[in-house]
Every structure is written in structure tokens, then in C-alpha cells.
Amino acid sequence: MGLVIFYVKKLFKIFRNEVLVLPSRVVVGLFFIVLLGLPLVTQDPYFIRIIILTSIFAIFAASWDLLSGFTGQMNFGHALFFGVGAYGSAMLNIHFNIPPWATIPMGAIVAVLAGLIVGIPCLRLKHTYLALTTLAFPIILLGIIIALPDISGGELGMTGLKRITESLLGNYYLHVGVFLVLAVIMWEITDSNTGIIFHAIREDELAVKASGINTVFYKLLAFCLSGFFAGIAGGLYAHYMRIAGPSTLGVDQSFTVVIYAIFGGAATIYGPIAAVFILFPLLEVFRLWPEYRMMLFAAVVLVILLYMPEGLIHWIRDKIEKECPRCKIRNIATRKTCRICTANLD
Amino acid sequence: MKKCTLGWRMLLVACIVMAFSLPAWAAKTIKIGVIGPMQSLEGRDHWAGATMAADEINAAGGVKVGNEKMQIVLIKADSNEDKNITDASNAMERLMTKDKVDFVVGGFRTEAVFPMQDIAMDYKKIFIGCGAATDALCDRVGTDYKRYKYYFRGTPFKSSYLAKTSIMHLLACAAVIKKELNAPIKVALVAEKLAWTEGMVKLIQGYVPKLGMELVGTWQPSANATDVTAELSAIQKSGANIIFTVFSGMVGITFARQAGEFKIPALQVGINVESQKDGFWEATKGMGNYVFTMNTYVQGVEQNELTKPFMDGYKKRFKGTPTYTADTYASIKYNLVPAIEAVGSLDSDKLVAFMEAREYLVPSGKVKYEKNKDGVYTHDLTWGPGYLTSVGCQWQDGKLVGVWPNNWMPDPKNYPNLKITYKGMVPIKLPPWMKKQ
Asked: Which of A61, A185, A311, B153 has the greatest number of CB atoms lying within 10 Å of its CB?
């Protein structure tokens, strides 16, 4: 009993000293609680559907950030991984009758292979050239899909996919649960040594090479990891929508994910996630003014990018928190001195 | 005193508001969701057809359901499906769960209609598709009747019948060329480079030699091409006297305009969606003369006695000719409402049993639902003489006129006396520069 009390006290202490000290961490904690507790407040199928799809696109947006935001390898064809995940999982489900809980990770593995296929020829490319080359890959795959209608369903896509579960709450907790777990994994990757190397590659690849780090390996690793997470999102999407169609590989799909990442703030993981959780439901709210819906959406994105070029979440975080100039630890904006090194924050 | 006056005033206002809104609470309504890409012509016509039907029915007192009269209330849902499939499925879910509609009409892009169909079936709501032609949408009804029986095709007939009709048009044009020019038929196939044309291209390539015609080549320009002179000069050199077009995009205008400017000695027939629109003549500066295309409605052509009142009503209200997606009108007025009145209920299962067995007239022909080879209803539309055939139309001197079926013999071997002609048909005209060859 004493041991339990000791650990509870320790947990509370960590919570008080590590979470409650920063507003951004409190917001993340609340976000987890709200998401997991939402069905206790409402089980409206439309609302649940929007949150499920938001969760799927949040994984997709964060996976782009992992590759392009962190390593700086600008991928304008990210729909390739999403589409490969969707089609891979759909083909396994339809042609081999494998259940969705198995086809989704298998589809993601196919997306990892796609990551390698794209990553290897792109190793020598940078900036605009890389962006344009990656843009071509989903278009090439789309051509292959249209050319093989017996296997891929052609222009109509693959229909009749099974959902993992038919239960409303089952679907909610499955998708939201997978999203939260994958978001934490992606965050942990970027916070690890690998993440630091990703960062360093973006800032100065030559310096990283000079430090004896195999940048080729890490750049390919970023492609594969990003492909894996986007592939999971694609597989979840295909089974939830019960169709894997050519639109999963569409150019607009690739650009939407870039919009999400830039809107929220690139190289953060949480930025693109927050952006999807703001923009996707907002588009539904704008159904109240159907004629102006897309115009309002574009206006919101433009205004944010105009006044907050680093992204909305960066901007908000800079308003509520301050970084210590000496130890680089973040503090709540109301503090005058750093909570760790007591340096003056103003 | 002042307080009392204010209280009385508030009470009076409340009473007036309640009195005026009483009929609205008292009357029960039938909610019909109209889903489509509302920012484009197809979606706007979904809405136009549905509003026409609802207004006519409500003005006549509403729908008699058992012993009570109900008014129709339409709920507009912009699916944005031409751009975003996820958006389209969300719009359908919203119709089902937020707006709680009783029925849905609409849908346009096949890839979007599949998930929409699944959602409607989840809620066991009748969904009448008014836009997507893919066979597979109704094949699903036949293979999994229990789940998909709430889906009906409203318009157009399935894509394999669209191809069949195009072949009929090709034969009609070939007959005129043979009669007037006594020349062997040489066909140039020009299809825009889009996925939907692939099946059509293969079919025409396979069929043309079987019909005793020569296929001189296949050209596939971009759907948005702004110059097709290279293709046209190659077609001219090939000696083709028929150009079979498969266009849905802006290339339909470019091709027709440039072919007219160069006076290519060949008749254009097939599908050219842009030429179905009223603005085609102006868009081609009159160079689109003699272009022949498939259509559902043409001013002056009457498939039956319902065509003219519909066309006139549409023209009066929306100033133009309806496209096929405006058949939401027929789906509501001639399919849903008579079924509800006959069954006396809004229960989907009872209605399906009644609707699938009916044969009824609509402005574009007569509807009868098909069964598959196992005898299970697919709720697909029957094509052929006496049912739905569509109309072949041609631009003749600034006017889009009906030219097919005109003395069409659908089965000359078995029924040599059966000839189909719709009221208002005129003969196919060849471009004068073809005759000077």
C-alpha cells in the first residue's frame, strides 16, 4: 500500500512539475482527455464521423511533417503513401479476404516500400527539384491503377471493403486510439536522437555528414517512417470509407496535407495535428453558408498564413510561453525568471 | 403599470408568432435530401429539378400519406464531390443524421456515389441516384439485395447502354453518308485522355470493324486542350468521313470550333458534353454546326406527353434546357410521390417493394427496373424501344435539334415493321463541305 501511495505521489509530482507548468502541455493533456471522453457527452454519428476522419487526416498530416518538416525533404506527392496504404490494404482485403486489422499494417508496409522506391532516386535531389519529382510519383501510380482495372478497380476504385468494426463507438475508439498512439510515437521519434539528426539534416546536411553520420540512411529512414504512418492513415481511410479510389492519390490530397502542416506550423508534429483538428471540422461548420464555404476556408488559411507565417500553433505558443535565453527551457509567459535556471526571461 | 404593459406586449408578440407558426408545426413534412456538386451545372440542375417537383406537388396540396397530407421539404447538400470524396460522404452522413431526411436524390461522380450509397444503406433510406452511370452501382443491388435494395437508379441509364446508344448513333450517321455520298465509311476515333473514356475507346475500336467500317486511327488529346490542329490535320489526311468523339471537357469546344474552321470533311458523332449545353453555339462562334451528340432533353423533342410540360416549366423558371441531372424532378414527382401515396407510408421496405415492380412514364421515356440473370432486381433502368433511349441531337444552323431516333429500327430481323420516331425529330444533316469532296 505504501508503495502505491509512493508512486501515486511521484506521478502527481511529475504531473505538477512537468505538465502543469506549461500551458501547451496542459492543452495537450486536455486534448487527450476530451478526445477519449467525447462519446460520454455525445454519440451523434455525424459528429463521431467527423472526429474519426479528422484523426485519420491528422496521422497523414503529421507523417508529412515527419519527413518534410523535420528533414526538409519537401514532398509534394505525399498522397502516394496514403494511396499505396489505401490500395494495398484494399487489395489484400478484396482479393485475399484478409481481415482489415491485418490488411492495414500490411498496406502500411507496402507504403514503406513505396517510401524506399521514392526515397532512393530522390536522394540526390533537393528543394524545388525534389518537390517536383515527388509530385510525379502518385501520378505515375494513378496511371498504373487506371491501366490495371481488373486488379485495382480502375477509375472506379475498389469498393465493398469491410470496416474493422460496425459499431459506432468501436470505430471511434479504434481510430482515435490509433491516432493518439501514432501521434505519440511520431513525437517520440522527433524527440529522440533520430529526430535530432533529422533536424540537423534539414539545417545543414554537409555538417551532419562531416560529423560521420550516414545521412543517406537517415533520409531514407525518414521516407520509410513517413510512408509507414501515411500508409496506416490510408488503410484506415479506405476501410472506414469502404472504398479505395483514385482520389486517394490525387494532387489535391498531396497539397491539402501541405496546407495542414504549414497552417499549424511545420517541424512540430503537433502543429499539423492541431491544424487538421481546426480546419477539417471548420469546413463542416462552413456548410451553414454553402455558397461561400470554400471561399471562407481559403480566407481563413490565407489570413493565418499572412499574419502567422510560422503557423498558428507556433504563434499561439509564442504568446503563452517564453523560451529561456540561457537554458532554452520553455516557461509560461507570465514568469519573470526561468523555472529551471532562474535566468531573467525579459 | 409600465412593467405590466411590457409583459402584455411580450405575450401578444409570442401569441402572434405562435399563431403564424402553428400550421408549420401542425403539418407533417416529408424531407428529401438533394445531394450534388452544387457549385457546378450538374448540382445546380439536381436542385433545379427537385425544387420544380416539390413546388408543383406542394402547390397541389402536398403528398397524401394515409389520411393526411404532407408537404415536401427539400434539404440541399453540397457534396463538393467533383473535388473531394470525403466531403461528399460527410454531406450524406449529415443528411442522414442531422437533417434526418426520409429520402435522398442526386449524386454525380461514381467514386463519391459509392460511399454515399453505403451510408444511405446503413440507415436504410431510399437513395435515387441521378448522375452516375456506372453499372456497378446497381450490380451491387443484385448481388447483395438485402443491403442495397434501397438504391435506385434515377438517371442516366447505365454506361454499357450509353456505349450501345452511341453505336446506334454511329450507324444512323453512317447510313446518311452512304445514302448521300455513297462512300465507304471511315471512322476516326477521338477521345479525351481521361480514365472514363478508356472503356468506350476499347469498345469502339472493337466494334467499328465488325460494323463493316474502317477505323482509320485513334487520337487522344487532353480534356482541356486549347489546340487540336495536329489531330485534325492527321484526321483529314486519313480520309475519315466520321469522327467519333468522346469528350466531357473543354476540348469538346476546341475540337468542334477548329474542325468547323478547317472545314474537315467529316461528321462528328458520339458524346460531346459541351455541345449539349445551350452556350455551345456562341462558344464555338457557330463553328460547331453539324456536331451530333447524345442528350437526354432537346427543345422541341417529345419522348412522351410529359416531356413538353417539363421542358416548358424548366425553361420558364430557369431559362434554359435541363441537363440529365435535372431528372431529380422525375425521381420525386413520378417515382417517390406516387409510391408514397399508393403505399400510404414512408416506410422504406414497403416503398421498395412497390417501387421496383412499377412501370411508369417520366419526361425522358418510360421507367422499368431490371433484374439480373438470377431474377433479382438490380433497380437499374431498362434501355430500349418503349423505355429509355436518350435522344441524339445535332446543331443545325444555331439550333440544337433532335435527329435520333428517327425511323430507328431496333430489331429489323424480328420486327421489320417496328420503327421508333420521337415527336419533333428532323433528318441528320451533313456539312455541305462533305458533299463537295
From this structure: A61
